[in-house]
């Protein structure tokens, strides 16, 4: 059970390996390259050109067999981003959700090539934002559905400090992913000044290796940040 490597194409920063012919995927690859420009522009991150190797498995069995053999400790998922000192790799499987999976994992690659110390919640929140197809302003339909399907008795929980406490080695729940995405969506899509707060945080973190938490910055800039965020989310869930 080995990595798929019969075909290889290089598309700028991305090198894609597969056992099946790749030309069908040119449009998807072009989109992944454009996605890097989106991230550069929105987050003002100088992404490094470090190559990202994408291994596309032709089916779930091949993917699952490889992962059980080589990474038996990994949780069961459709795709993975792996990073070592000088190499970034993505493992994904062909299928209906391949494009979404690649947009998600490639986001991790772009972000990690710009800064090594992003908190887990923000890394995943951004990946959930950018996994939505380009041009949709990060609107992640499955997570919108997740919020819509919660029982009406359960209040929308948007405690940013709780997310900030998630450790790098922790496994995030679907609820964590949904809330992380919602905060990122709020920061990037609500008001330009909120986007500046996120940019400032990322710039400080990148320069100094640590930064005052986003929750503290938001509390100083927005009187009731959590209410503003819930309001933002409600407008997404129940547009007029
Ligand atoms: Zn992820």
Structure description:
This protein is an alpha/beta fold. The chain folds into 2 domains: 7-114, Collagenase ColT, N-terminal domain (Glutaredoxin, 3-Layer(aba) Sandwich), CATH 3.40.30.160; 125-237, no CATH class. Helix content is 52%, strand content 12%. Helix 1 (26-43) crosses helix 3, helix 4 (120-130) crosses helix 7 and helix 7 (174-189) crosses helix 8. The longest helix is centred in the first third of the chain and has 18 residues, at 26-43. Bound molecules: zinc ion (ZN). Zinc ion binds next to helix 3 and helix 4.
Q: Report the sheet with the most strands, covering strand number, pairing sense and barrel closure.
A: 5 strands, mixed
Summing up helix and strand content along with how strands pair, one would put the structural category as alpha/beta
Helix content: 40-55%
- Quick one: overall form? globular
Strand order of the largest sheet: 1-2-3-5-4
Total strands: 5
At a glance:
By secondary structure, the chain is of the alpha/beta class. The chain is built from 10 helices and 5 strands, in the order E-E-H-E-H-E-E-H-H-H-H-H-H-H-H.
Question: Which descriptors apply to this entry?
Answer:
10 helices, binds zinc ion, 5-stranded mixed sheet, alpha/beta, Glutaredoxin, 2 domains, 240 residues, globular
Topology, please?
Elements: E1 7-11, E2 14-18, H1 26-43, E3 52-57, H2 60-70, E4 80-84, E5 87-93, H3 98-114, H4 120-130, H5 141-148, H6 160-164, H7 174-189, H8 192-208, H9 214-221, H10 225-237
Parallel strand pairs: 2-3, 3-5
Antiparallel strand pairs: 1-2, 4-5
Helix pairs in contact: 1-3, 3-4, 4-7, 5-7, 7-8
Bound molecules: zinc ion.
């Amino acid at each position: 059970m080995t990595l798929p490597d019969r075909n290889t194409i290089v598309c700028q920063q991305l090198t894609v390996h597969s056992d099946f012919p790749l030309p069908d995927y040119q449009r998807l690859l072009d989109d992944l390259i454009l996605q890097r420009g989106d991230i550069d522009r929105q987050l003002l991150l100088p992404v490094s050109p470090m190559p990202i190797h994408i291994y596309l498995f032709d089916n779930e069995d091949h993917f699952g067999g490889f992962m059980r053999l080589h990474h038996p400790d990994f949780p069961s998922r459709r795709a993975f981003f792996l990073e070592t000192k000088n190499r970034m790799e993505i493992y994904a499987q062909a299928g209906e959700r391949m494009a979404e999976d690649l947009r998600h994992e490639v986001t991790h690659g772009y972000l990690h090539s710009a800064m090594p110390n992003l908190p887990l919640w923000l890394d995943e929140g951004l990946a959930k934002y950018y996994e939505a197809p380009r041009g949709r302003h990060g609107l992640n339909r499955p997570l919108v559905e997740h919020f819509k399907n919660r029982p009406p008795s359960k209040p929308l929980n948007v405690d940013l400090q709780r997310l900030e406490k998630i450790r790098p080695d922790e496994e995030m729940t679907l609820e964590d992913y949904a809330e992380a995405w919602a905060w990122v969506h709020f920061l990037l899509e609500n008001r330009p000044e909120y986007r500046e707060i996120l940019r400032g945080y990322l710039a400080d973190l990148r320069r100094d290796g640590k930064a005052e938490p986003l929750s503290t910055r938001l509390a100083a800039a927005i009187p009731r940040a959590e209410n503003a965020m819930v309001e933002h989310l409600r407008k997404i869930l129940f547009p007029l």
